[in-house]
């Protein structure tokens, strides 16, 4: 007997249909079962190996093991700040409006600002550096906080106190009192970092707690104009609100930075304080609660190509001393204007900010080895550092009339004690005051009205004749000038 089944216009015999039915039955019977149920294709199978990878293919390494080891020493920092009420004075109030709002108290509540104390909560991160509870975070995380709470990964919470803090570098040291010992991290060497090195950030962004991000070092030595000691590491590892104070790790698990800042609107652009900077501050923060910085007592400036050529060195090979302050550590040690500082305690310096940071990391009364280049020869001086003070800048007043014309298109007049008093500068200062600079002169753009020229080609000048005589003795077409501007001494090179 033959029966016809119509499929795609052809007749299929019953025998073929029987074979297909048996095949389907066999497939159904061969299916895997889990606890008596059929195992679907999307479930994981244990009897099959991993897919084969192309020869030479290397899968990306996992950071999970490193993170598990480091997380217990990273903490969440929660702070509370009490904001005092603002009380508006009665001056300027409208009596009619006070009466309209039912008296001065109601008026004050509507228009006079806060009438009660308010609490503001904020969050940040930190990391444990000693088993007895010392924690590093940012200064701005705990600044003005009336209450600080630390939360660990195991949900234990502790009250913390500030042991020491340094606003200039945004580093703070906290202390909690745990029962038993705590997990800690190791502090690495941020100077060894290279752009492109992998880093891991762990912190408390947006209060989520112990969030991990990874990236690379994108740049070093970044300046954010946060102070005179900026030296930030830049990273593309995501750093968000609440990450401040948290650790930035290298792939060996060492802390190499303190996550500190982000750029508003910047995509994956974060900044961290190098851990070497923080390590230099820890002894003082622990013993004194603040940082006292070393002071050399010199005015300094970077070496431009023209200055470097005039002094016979390479640009960025050192820092030029433009001024040595009276009774300063540098003066007592024998340093002079015109010396070029090459290194501090054996570490080379290339620019003024680097020199300032190196000196600032040294404590007062420390003896520092200062290597300089003087008249083409290297000399080393031992300087006992003083303590840095902010000091006051000196602003120059208006120029004196009746100037005399000099070469280079400068109008000059001698700086007498009377003129010095009028300008608000030291009466013992001697030189020539610049009252005007011709727009088409070689000095335009370098010398300003109000500058005081102290030296020309390293010769003191107090008169127009001194100026012209010293300028004529210039060996080439360039003139080296030392000037006084805004309380500082500077060297400039002017083309004739």
Short description, anyone?
With 496 residues, the protein is of the alpha+beta class. It folds into 3 domains: 71-83 and 117-291, Beta Barrel (Thrombin, subunit H), CATH 2.40.10.120; 294-387, Roll (Pdz3 Domain), CATH 2.30.42.10; 404-495, Pdz3 Domain (Roll). It contains 11 helices and 33 strands.
Explain what you see.
The protein is an alpha+beta fold. Helices cover 19% and strands 34% of the residues. A hairpin with a 3-residue loop joins strand 16 and strand 17 (254-262). The longest helix is centred in the first third of the chain and has 17 residues, at 14-30. It is elongated and about 90 Å long. The N and C termini lie far apart (119 Å). The model is unreliable at 1-35 and 390-403 (pLDDT under 50).
Round the Cα radius of gyration to an integer and report it: 36 Å
Strand ordering within the main sheet: 9-8-5-6-7-11-10
Poorly predicted regions are 1-35, 390-403
- Helix content, binned percent: 10-25%
For the sheet with most strands, the description reads: 7 strands, antiparallel
- Overall residue-averaged pLDDT value: 78
Strand content: 25-35%
CATH architectural grouping of the largest domain: Beta Barrel
CA(first)-CA(last) distance: 119 Å
Look up the CATH topology of the largest domain: Thrombin, subunit H
Query: According to CATH, what is the class of the largest domain?
Result: Mainly Beta
Number of helices: 11
């Amino acid at each position: 007997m033959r029966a016809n089944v119509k499929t795609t216009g052809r007749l299929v015999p019953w025998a073929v249909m029987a074979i297909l039915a048996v095949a389907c039955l066999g497939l159904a019977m061969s299916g895997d079962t889990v606890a008596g149920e059929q195992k679907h294709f999307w479930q994981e199978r244990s009897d099959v190996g991993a897919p084969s990878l192309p020869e030479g293919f290397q899968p990306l390494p996992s950071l999970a093991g490193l993170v598990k080891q480091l997380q217990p020493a990273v903490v969440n920092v929660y702070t509370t700040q009490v904001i005092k009420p603002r009380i508006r004075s009665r001056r300027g109030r409208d009596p009619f409006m006070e009466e309209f709002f039912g008296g001065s108290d109601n008026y004050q509540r509507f228009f006079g600002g806060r009438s009660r104390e308010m609490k503001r909560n904020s969050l940040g991160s930190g990391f444990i550096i000693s088993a007895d509870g010392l924690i590093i975070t940012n200064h701005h995380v705990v600044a003005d906080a009336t209450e600080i709470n630390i939360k660990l990964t195991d949900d234990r919470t502790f009250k913390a106190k500030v042991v020491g803090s340094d606003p200039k570098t945004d580093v703070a040291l906290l202390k909690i009192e745990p029962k038993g010992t705590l997990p800690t991290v190791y502090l690495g060497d941020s100077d060894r970092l290279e752009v492109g090195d992998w880093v891991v950030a762990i912190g408390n962004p947006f209060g989520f707690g112990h969030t991990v991000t990874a990236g690379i070092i994108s740049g070093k030595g970044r300046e954010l104009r946060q102070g005179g000691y900026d030296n930030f590491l830049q990273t593309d590892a995501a750093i968000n609100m609440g990450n401040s104070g948290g650790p930035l790790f290298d792939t060996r698990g060492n802390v190499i930075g303190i996550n500190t800042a982000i750029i508003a609107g910047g995509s994956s652009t974060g900044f961290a304080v190098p851990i070497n900077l923080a390590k230099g501050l820890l002894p003082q923060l622990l013993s004194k609660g603040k940082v006292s910085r070393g002071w050399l007592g010199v005015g300094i400036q970077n070496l431009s190509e023209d200055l470097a050529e005039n002094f016979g060195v390479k640009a960025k090979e050192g820092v030029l001393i433009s001024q040595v302050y009276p009774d300063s550590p540098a003066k007592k040690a024998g340093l002079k204007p015109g010396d070029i500082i090459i290194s501090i305690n054996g570490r080379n310096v290339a620019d003024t900010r680097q020199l300032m940071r190196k000196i600032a990391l040294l404590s007062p009364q420390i003896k520092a080895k200062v290597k300089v280049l003087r008249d083409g020869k290297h000399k080393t001086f031992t300087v006992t550092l003083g303590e840095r003070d902010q000091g006051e800048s000196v602003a120059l007043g208006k120029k004196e009339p009746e100037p005399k014309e000099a070469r280079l298109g400068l109008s000059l007049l001698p700086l007498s004690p009377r003129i010095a008093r009028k300008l608000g500068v030291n009466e013992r200062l001697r030189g020539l005051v610049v009252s005007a600079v011709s727009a088409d002169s070689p000095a335009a753009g370098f010398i300003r009205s109000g500058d005081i020229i102290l030296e020309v080609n390293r010769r003191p000048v107090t008169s127009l004749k001194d100026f012209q005589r010293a300028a004529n003795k210039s060996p080439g077409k360039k003139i080296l000038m030392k000037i006084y501007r805004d309380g500082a001494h500077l060297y400039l090179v002017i083309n004739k």
